[in-house]
């Protein structure tokens, strides 16, 4: 009885912590991705439906869009004002070039190279612009956008610790209650925009390679199925009804699924809602009473067929199959990330944003860990309360240190740019315009730094308080 109560309270421990940590992510977030890919991800809000139309124009499909210098200031996101906005803010294309990154061996550019590339990207301002209300804030936001660091979401940290510390995987703050059989349905985006190129390789080719490697490693006793939407070979010409279960959920079908994946040619639209609706039939033989059902939706954009994916996910969760709906967003813009994360949240699943082949491979490894945990059935491998508390406390401490180092890097780079602007020749038509607002900019940078530090301290205190309080309750229950 004591063991059962311990497990229940440990679950409650992590659940309460994660409620305090619940964030709007989108970040998966790789500091080593190329400048072109980063800027494409973060500055371009594309017309997804137009992107997903079938096309034979190879040049358009292969085009990678860079930072739009002429609209950088007007389009830049405002500086974050709270913790949620800090952790969900896009990673800057020139992040990872501060002092602490140098110590870690991660920085890519010297100070001189960083100054040069930012001066080439960030437009100078004029006396007339400075007089416009809010302009300096927007200009500083543009500078911050270019160098913004990647602040990790605490929820992702604790989800991973749940698997490592308690022997049971966690998705979106919930420990998975494994049943007798595990069933996985992959819903793969084969729409036209999957022909876009990242670092010399189409997104579809990246997905094909990593999915096939993932399928090869699946245990033979895991049932797997494949549903595609879009694709130039679709029977309805790439329209909104083009979603098809190519391989029913079963075992012993891995080679056939890999062959189908290899033959995909991108084309068509993005009927996410219809695909989710049809997946109810795909799982019809697998009741949640004896089955753990997982959906992995892989998409590079939002719904383009006027469907309602959120409603369909709710229907799935209310059905007798109750699948956990996870979403991998592949090189999706900010608006797209918001919708896809909403789908995952409603599906009690996890949203993972990937922006290059390395991040896509990592997302497959994350799925593999969950499936491995089901196979091994480490239901009794739960650390005692003291060990669990120590690990959580240490994770909070390490994360707080990382936030502080990244904050210092952002501050140092912004101050580096202030010095560079102060001594630069030819950047401003009238350099006096910068001298007139120099002190204002320094104050704004300092205020931004203070706000970040206050938000980090407040969040760390909340996390520690939750761990301490529930730990005391747990010890009382055990005794």
Please provide a brief summary of the model.
With 479 residues, this protein is α/β, with parallel strands linked by helices. The protein is built from 19 helices and 10 strands. Strand 8, helix 15 (309-318) and strand 9 (324-330) form a beta-alpha-beta unit.
Quick tags:
single chain, 479 residues, alpha/beta, six-stranded mixed β-sheet, two-stranded antiparallel sheet, 12% strand, globular, disordered N terminus
Give the number of helices.
Answer: 19
The strand line-up of the biggest sheet is 7-6-3-8-9-10
Strand fraction equals 5-15%
Distance between the termini: 12 Å
Mean pLDDT: 79
DSSP E strands, number: 10
| Chain oligomer state | single chain
Largest sheet: 6 strands, mixed
* Relative helix content: 40-55%
The arrangement of helices and strands along the chain is HHHHHHHHHHHEEEEEHEEHHEHEHEHHH
Structural class comes to: alpha/beta
Shape, principal axes of CA atoms: globular
Based on CA atoms alone, the radius of gyration comes out at 24 Å
Poorly predicted residue ranges: 1-66, 378-383
Description:
This protein has 479 residues and is α/β, with parallel strands linked by helices. The N terminus is likely disordered. The strands form three sheets. The chain has a six-stranded mixed β-sheet with strand order 7-6-3-8-9-10, sandwiched between helices. It has a two-stranded antiparallel ribbon with strand order 1-2. 54% of the residues lie in helices and 12% in strands. The radius of gyration is 24 Å and the shape is globular. The protein has 19 helices and ten strands. Helix 12 runs antiparallel to helix 13, helix 12 packs parallel to helix 17 and helix 15 runs parallel beside helix 16.
